[in-house]
Structure formats: C-alpha cells, structure tokens
Write a structure and sequence with these properties.
single chain, 491 residues, alpha/beta, 17 helices, 42% helix, globular
Length: 491
C-alpha cells in the first residue's frame, strides 16, 4: 500500500489507521501495481484547531475527507492532531469501502486503558461509554464491553498493595509449531535437546531476579510461567524449575501462580502432581477449537478427545483454577462449528475462558494468506459476538482485553471469568500497574515506576541458543544494573 504522510503526525499511527480498512497491508512510498490501495494524509494545526485531510484510493476509486478538531483546552496539540487524522481517515474509509470499524479510531493494544482512566478519575460508566462513542467513534456494543472490563479491572487493581510486582518466566519450546503462531518457540529435535541446559540457566536467572526483587523491597503478587508450552518440559525439569521458584518466594502467599499447560498432548498426571505440589493455582489447557479438521489445518497435533482427557486430568489434580483458550476466525471454521466449540467449553465450566481473534503476524506460517484470512469479516464478527453473549448468559464476566494488528475484522481478545476467579497477572500486565520482571529467552521485563507514568523495557536474548551462549552472564548483569538504575531514579 502506497502511503504518503505530510505534517506533524506519527506515521506508525497512520499505518494503524490504514489497517482498519486494509488488513494485513504492507507499506511503501510507491504503488505495487495499478489499482493498489493508497493513502495521502495531510495534517496541520494552529492555536485554534488541528485539521486533517485524507485521500484513500482503491480499485480505481478515490475519496477525500477532511476533519478539524477545535482547541477547547481538553487535549494537547499531539492528541488533537491524532483525533483529527483519525476521524478524517474513518470518514474516508467508510465512504470508500462501506466498512465501519467497530472500534472506531481507537488503536493500540490496550483499549481498556482509556476507560479505566475515566472511571478512576470519577467518571460514571455512562460518561465513559459516551466519551468512547463521541471522541473515538467506538460502537455502542464495544464501548459497553470495554467499560465493563475497565470496571472489573478497577475493583481488582484498587486492592493491589504498594510496592508489588509480578514475575514472568519464559519456556520457549513446543512439541510442534501451530500455523498461526508468531511466538519465538522451538520445536526441532536439535533445539529441544537444549532444554536441560536451558532449565539450568533459567534457574540461575530465577534466583537472580528474585534476589533483586527482595533487595528492592518489593512483594511478588503473581508468577506466570508461559511459552511456548511450559509442559514441554519433562517431570524432572518441571520439578527442578518449580522447586527453585519455591525456594525463592513463598508461593502460598502469592495472589496467583499460573502455568500454561497449553497443549493437551503435553499434559500427564505425573506432571500435574508436580505442578500442584509446587503451589501452582492456575493452569491453561487450550483446545483453540473442537473441530478435528480445523485442528489439523492449524497444526495442532492433538485430537479433540485428547483435550477432554487432559482437561479431566487437570480437574482431578486439584489445581484451583483452569483457563481454556479459543480462537475465533481460524481458516475453514464457520459460525456453526465455532459456536458448538464455545457451548461445549462452557459446559465444562472452566473458571476462565479466553477468546482470541485470529491475528496474522509476519512470522506465522499463515502470513502468506494474511490478506484473505483477515478479510473474513462477517463470519468472525458473528463468532466473537456469540462468545460474549454465551459467556454472559452462563455467568461469566469479561475481565481483561487486548487488541493486535492484523486481526480478523480488527476484533479483540477477551478474557472471561466466573466472578472471583479473574486472572490477576493478565490484568496487572495489560494495565501496566506494576513492574513485571521477566526471565528466559524472548522475555521482556517491563519496569513501571512506583508512582506510575514512567515505563522502561528490558529485552532478554531472543533465542535459546543466544541465551545459553552468554556464559559470562553479561546480559543478566546488565539487566540487574538497569533495574537498579530505574528504581533509583523513580523511587
């Protein structure tokens, strides 16, 4: 897609607006071919207003729209320009393509952040919904959803103690790679042979990060072991890692201790006994779909029966909370199949049900089909709407939300929970209420100042072989130094 941007406006923001109407587009300064989509954006501002003119072209058609945002003193110049650009783009896209994005011009990963800010400042839910609709053109249905989620988050965040943090531990290995996956996870026998050494080094880093947390006088609220698939580890490896975590912190005092079992084909009764005995309180078992043909298409090497057997094992293990993940918009899965999956999962009564909308990223095997997949608007929207209605009718509440680029119909990912079982780590991480210290290959630590407002990120090595090559532990030492500097400057 040819994109031309003139004026003081962030080009990345303009690209996110393009993706609302032209999913999975790649951007350049030149047209790829005759009739290819294009956008020309001009933004200006002065003391009185910010104005934007947007011209969109596609398949030989062209539409130009202009919008001006008056300076009422409510917003700074930067925000005024974004609003003007967004509303001009929204009008042009709607006129050219007949598409009305349900999230309006609200972009970014954290749509609940705006609603949470409003509620925390004393605004009513009705006022927050009205703001979302008026200023950001969010549909009434999505405005209600995100406001309800923000209200649920606010109740939990308000009880969070001071000087708290969370810990994320990365296990970037899987038994096989799913076709939609873009995570740094490793499946070949050569890379899986690194797991023993990886766990040894990871345990060193776990001890180091908990030591630093104690030195800073912080209290760990939640621990989350994610992946990849952590249950790719065998019983001995799991016991070693969980034992080290227990030696570093009182897991019984945590608000929540999560481990992603994820793939049903990696779950055994023996592993679950180790997980339970080491204080884990929340496990994810993720079918994604209960359609056998779709499971094969997406590269999940387990059957529907495997999922039900694994779920029953977790249920019998005594682990307190179970989450299940589903994905709406998978290739070849229509509304009837997906809604049947939702109904069957609800019948199991897991504490949490997380519904993702398929997102296609450049590293995924599905990337070559991204444009076709991302344009399956009506069917996927119908699936997502159904999950929200079915979960509500079954007594679940939406409690956290995030969005991604190149998601089918620009839809959202929502976590639902039976009241009182909300996944705390998900809320704390998504709303950036305290620091998340991460260890392992591909992990990103997010440092949040105690008073809020200041956020820094520290990236670990991306690949396991890089992580293991750091025999002098230079990366770990640099991380500790950066953490100490951050807290010295922001405490």
């Amino acid at each position: 897609m040819k994109l031309t941007v003139n004026g003081d406006i962030n080009e990345y923001y303009v690209q996110t607006l393009c993706l609302l109407f032209f999913p999975a587009s790649k951007f350049s300064k030149d047209s790829a071919h005759e009739g290819a989509p294009g956008a020309v954006v001009n933004v200006t501002s002065d003391a009185e207003k910010a104005s934007a003119t947007v011209t969109l072209k596609s398949d030989g058609k062209s539409v130009t729209k202009t919008y001006s945002e008056a300076n009422t003193g409510k917003y700074n110049d930067y925000t005024m320009r974004r609003i003007a650009c967004g509303k001009a783009f929204f009008a042009a896209g709607k006129a050219l393509l007949g598409i009305t994005p349900q999230w309006g011009i609200l972009t970014g990963v954290r749509p609940a952040k705006l609603a949470l800010k409003g509620l925390s400042s004393g605004e009513t839910k009705a006022a927050v919904k009205a703001l979302m609709a008026k200023e950001y053109l969010v549909s009434p249905k999505k405005a209600a959803l995100v406001t309800d989620i923000a209200a649920a988050e606010k109740k939990i965040i308000s009880k969070l103690g001071k000087n708290t943090c969370s810990v994320y531990i990365s296990i970037p290995f899987c038994p096989s790679r799913c076709s939609y996956c873009s995570f740094v996870s490793f499946t070949s026998s050569k890379l899986l042979s690194l797991i023993d050494d990886y766990v040894d080094k990871l345990c060193e880093d776990v001890r180091s990060i908990f030591g630093e947390i104690n030195k800073l006088g912080l209290t760990v609220s939640t621990v989350y072991i994610g992946g990849g698939t952590p249950t790719t580890l065998d019983e001995k490896q799991l016991a070693k890692l969980l034992g080290v975590i227990n030696s570093c912190t009182d897991t019984a005092a945590l608000e929540e201790f999560t481990l992603e079992a994820g793939r049903p084909d990696t779950i055994t009764a023996e592993k679950l006994a180790i997980i339970k005995d080491n204080g884990v309180t929340r496990v994810s078992v993720n079918p994604q779909t209960l359609n056998p043909a779709v499971l094969e298409i997406i590269g999940r090497h387990h059957t529907v029966d495997d999922f039900f057997k694994a779920y029953e094992l977790v249920k019998k293990s005594g682990i307190k909370h179970i989450n299940t993940d589903l994905i709406a918009g998978l290739p070849s899965e229509g509304f009837q199949s997906f809604s049947e999956t939702v109904d069957r999962i609800i019948d199991l009564r897991p504490d949490n049900i997380t519904v993702h909308t398929l997102c296609i990223k450049s590293a995924a095997d599905f990337a070559s089909r991204a444009v076709d997949i991302c344009n399956t608007f009506s069917e996927t929207t119908k699936c997502v709407d159904y999950t929200q209605l079915a979960c509500k009718n079954a007594g679940y509440i939406p409690y956290y939300i995030y969005r991604q680029k190149n998601t089918v119909d620009n839809l959202e990912n929502v976590g639902f929970a039976l009241p009182g079982t909300e996944g705390r780590y998900n809320i704390y991480m998504m709303e950036e209420v305290h620091s998340v210290f991460s260890v392992g290959a591909g992990a990103v630590s997010k440092l949040v100042s105690p008073e809020g407002g200041k956020i820094d990120r520290i990236f670990d090595y991306k690949y396991p072989y890089e992580y293991l090559s750091d025999t002098e532990n230079e990366k770990r030492q640099n991380k500790i130094r950066m953490i100490e500097e951050f807290y010295a400057q922001n405490s």
